[in-house]
Records
---
Amino acid sequence: MNVAESSTMLVWGAATAYAIALVCFTMLLARHADTGVREPAAVGAVRAPSVEGATSATSTTSGPDVPARRPVAEGIARSTLFAGLALHLGAVVTRCARLEIDEYVLDPAVGRWVPERTNEDDWELCRNFEAFLTFGRPVLAAISRKTFIGDLLGKEPEERLAGTLALTMDLVRQGAAVVRSHDVAETADLLRVYEKMRQT
């Protein structure tokens, strides 16, 4: 298996085992302490290609094709939104270090996991996804068929593939290392094409 295949096609083999291990690990943490870690639904997982210079992968340039980042208009204040997630993810990293656990993935929990969370909050998290790379750990992109995509497009869950793939590509560009997906084959195709375009 060549490099491209090994980095994008870990769908039901190693990547599925990886996702199962992630579920087991988050369940273990949830039993021992309230860290704010949720148990993910591991429908399918695809290992995303690595992104060189991931911490600065997203351009901050404004223009007709590059929307400027903006603060959250409603819901959780932007500073509170990111501060809360940083606190919870930092707690996971600290616990893992204390328990000498090296193989784990961080999940920023994009989605309506608290009553105050709005669609715009989720879009803001996705626009600034690279911020979660500061912990130095692989980060999970788990946005497949999520409500904020469906509400934007006016689509039911099973009709959100195009929107999910568009957002997935941007999150991988920002540094997502693992992608959770309901549509594994289509996501794997996207990642294979994305990696091919990055080859020099």
---
Amino acid sequence: MANLVFDYDGTLHNSMLTYAPAFRDTMKWLSDSGYIADREYSDKEISYWLGFNSTDMWGNFHPELDITIRETARKKLGENMAHRLDSGEGALYTGAEEMLTALKNAGHTIIFLSNCRVHYMERAKRLFGLDKWFDHFYCCEEFDFIPKYEIFRRFAPNHKGEYIIIGDRFIEGDIKERQQARVLYEQAAASGQRAGLVRVGGGEQTRAEVRRADPAAGAYRCAPGHSASPTRTFPGSRASAAVARLAVIYD
């Protein structure tokens, strides 16, 4: 049996039910207070920030704000979400409970890994009874807000067996010089893995977004110039598991 590492928000939990209104309320407070310009925020724009821990989110979203203002806004958004969750506005995605029950009954080890804070994780456990499915819980606050892939590296040796990472939107890749990246790519391709090369110029950043294009044909689509990985989808959920080897090259 496998160790199934689940992301939570946007994978099992329909976070936009609480995050979107809390986000808009917080932005209104900031604009009413004169800290930012007043404007509308689409659900697509708001959902982008769900993949970040709250400290990184504010550091990237409004880095020009004084750190005390960003921290106040972070707390307001979190408290707003907590109130909405306690009021019953939150929900797991349809089919998530049945899927988790089936995986648990099949003997898999189910692991919670999230960029959330401890109080948010504990509230989720209490409101949705996550303890009956999950064997282990890890959140970024317990690890001083390091990236999730680094948290995974720390706890992975504690559990025997293979891992499937489910629902995360980020794929870790190493930056290598051109020739070394080409060697890694060819080794991965020769071993039957899906692989790709991404060219990154000096000082540039890149991000790959993976979408399933044709499930029947096993095809995958990503942004031009970026590489894709195979994606496994569990029935009855929005969760997907991606396994990839990514070689990134630069000039």
---
Amino acid sequence: MQPMRLATRKREEPDLDITPMIDITFLLLIFFLVATRIDSTASAKLPEARHGVSTQSARAVHFTVLGAADLPEVFTSSAMSPESRLSAASEEALRAAVESHAQSVVQAHPEIDRILVFAAKDTPSRQVSLVTSAAAKTGLPLFIAVIEQREGDQ
């Protein structure tokens, strides 16, 4: 007697259609992009610095930045006196004033080899960036420090 031959069926691999999953992913992405409000004036709480590099302030151009509604208040010294305040009507004018001051100080004092920017802890990063980008055009190394602004300071 001969053994009975059984017909073997080819096993079909199950198809997994991922098109609906991709559609849902893109719908969620679009939803979150449209529903999210980006606040450019928000200030970030940064942790305390554990490691840092000290720098000599005697050989530096100083800028102090205090946050304000539209334009930051920028001073050309850490004393923040009214005489050292850079006044400007627009962002472009403020950039030009910062760059001009930095260039003139560097030309008048060749021993200056760095730029120090002091920013109040509640100053929005956009306003600090406005000052640092203008000051950096001198080509000197840039150091940024966060300061605590006391009630009487302005």
---
Amino acid sequence: MHDRRLIALLSSLITLVLTATISAQCPPHPAAIQWHAKSGGNGHYYARIDEPMEWEAAQARAVQLGGYLATIGSQAENDFVMQLCLASPGPLSWLGGRLVAGNWRWVTGEPWDYTNWAPGEPNNTNGVEQYLIHWPGSTQWNDGGRYQGTFIVEWSTGIERDCDGNGICDTIELAADPALDLNGDGLLDVCQCIPFATAQEWRKESGGNGHFYARFDIGVLWTEARDHALQLGGHLATITSAAENAFVASVAADGFLNVKHLGGYREGSTWRWVTGEPWQYTSWYPGEPNNGNGNEIYLATWVIPGTWNDIYPEYAAGFVVEWNEEQLDCNANGSCDSAEIAGNPGLDINLDGTIDSCQCIADVIADGVVNGVDLASVINDWGMADSPADIDRNGTVGGSDLAIILSAWGPCAP
């Protein structure tokens, strides 16, 4: 009897030890290294993030990753952090200090007790060097201005990311299956609204709009590309600034012709965006638009990345799709629409990539109300395929479409 109790106790202790060990080995980021307490450290994790950006954007990115720009309170901590700064060639690395009202402060609010300035620093050259960065080739510090740098993120002990709530640390999942992070930002894609595997985010912390963009290389007509984009829950890319144009050009460039449909079209002499946004910014190739064939009414990127051309309706090319925040989470419930639809396909019975409750799918003729006109469309096309009245896209207009009409009768919700 005593032996069994002893075995049970030992088993429990082993389980506790293993659990603690797994927890201790679960870093908050794939690149994070722990400054172990047994080595005189604080138990915190640190990682150098090689995404060049300005200091304020770097701090925002650090917070997004669950940490903050690294703060340094002792010579020992400085030595540990500087190993990361100097680990490989590249831009200098931002740290978590900044000049506020003439005084240097840490982003965490902890006391500014320890410093390790390089000789003659901080000197606030031209009055713009207000951010802490390490000194080139050494373990000392410098004050830096508004330029691009890598950065060191710090996470306090016990912070572990399990964004999908499955009980497995995100870093362990990412190490086992890198495909879980297709956009390479160190976060599980399932925890973000990533609308398509190859979509790239124009991040707000890098001066972007937070939208996603993806290039599709299949050759289709402009109208077909527009419909493909809608089916994917987005729209053909629209461009309203030089910065956005540069980002879209990087997405559109295929190393060959670079010609991709965009979301612009001409009505009469007026160019418009498919979203209704103001047509204010342009980047036409020299001599364009020239309406060369007398019917060049659609917009595409052109052979020189960043330039545009007007093209005719029969021109087949790839295309760039854009997704904004509303398209990614149309019901604003905090869950990405694509993830919701993947978990419950019944949320998108018309298979257009958008949750049905966010639109009026029974409004067949799109006049803002479900009424007898829509009902007539179903009755007139009964049994037909490839009809707008096939609301649930099951291949035939029938009773299921009629049921959708009747259940949604009346004005469409705003």
